[in-house]
Amino acid sequence: MVSVEELKSFEIFNGLTDSELSSIGELAKKEEYGEGTRIFEEESQATNLYLVLKGQIEIRMWADKGLEQLSIETVGQGDIFGWSSVTEPYTLTAAAWTVENSELLVLNGKVLRDLFKKNNHIGYMIMMEVASVISSRLRNLNQKCVNNLCLNNS
What we know:
four-stranded antiparallel beta sheet
């Protein structure tokens, strides 16, 4: 179980009541990962949503026909990753590796989706935050791609 106070430090839970946060806290567990640990691989089944308590996680995608993994973003304290566990088709779009020793909150995606069905307010508020994260990361990735194209064409 994770405390309501710990959950309040994450933007993804903005707008939820203490009672709703308590419901989520009952589902969450803490996991620790050493530096250089792969948490999950791109294109595998998305089972968990991860929230960073401590440390940094590098998000990587395969490039050059699977010959090289490129870092597309680094997330840290207060950030989420593994959002594919709450969005269809529940397939991971990138890999995640620890940059340093990290402590994560882990929520099983299926259990979380079941909670969303029971409490639509929780589902709506969390999915609005997840959509914001996806939008921001897509915008950042698009900008990196445009910058790379500009460098290659000059």
